Amino acid sequence: MTSGPDNAWHRPGANTYRLRVETLTAAQIRASFVNCSKGEAKRANLPDLDAVPWADLDFLGWVDPSGSSRAYLVAERDGEPVGLLLRQNPAGKGQARRSKLCEVCLTAHTDTGVCLTVAAKTGAAGKRGDTTGIYICRDLSCSLYARGKKASGVPKLRETLPVEAMVERTRSNLDDFLRRVLAG
Ligand SMILES: [Zn+2]
What we know:
There is one protein chain. By secondary structure, this protein is of the alpha+beta class. The protein has one domain (8-144, 151-182). 23% of the residues lie in helices and 21% in strands. It contains five helices and seven strands; from the N terminus they run ααββββββαβαα. The chain has helices at residues 26-32, 38-43, 123-127, 142-146, 163-182, and strands spanning 60-63, 70-77, 80-88, 100-101, 108-109, 114-120, 131-137. The strands form two sheets. The protein has a five-stranded antiparallel β-sheet with strand order 1-2-3-6-7. A two-stranded antiparallel ribbon has the order 4-5. The longest helix is centred in the C-terminal third of the chain and has 20 residues, at 163-182. It is globular. The structure holds zinc ion.
């Protein structure tokens, strides 16, 4: 894939965040992964795609149901789905007992509801083993939290932003993370 300065994703002042996702097939999802091997993409456990609330998603994110530390995220940018293999920090152990904010949707969770989630970078940086991380909702349901369609266990601070602005903020924050992954 291309990731040079001519790539539209990196163009300063590009009018809006094109991050979103439309209904994808299993084959499209498997073909979309940019930061793992073809074997890992093929072996990924996909969610039940018929049960996915596509219309409410800025990105599709899910946790490997087998209980591994793997999680996955697919966002559509410039008409192309971009999938990431992620590694989640295990729950519990040594984490402070206080609420934490997701860096994408800014939802507050109990200490296990947000976790450090790491992605291998693409390109030359990825070949060197570079990774980048973000604290994000463990269930990767940021799109639903931003729309008020899902609630965390932590009482919400009064949020004065309209839903559209919260959605835009979620997209913008995830876009920053994708940029870091793809900057290699
Ligand atoms: Zn979130």
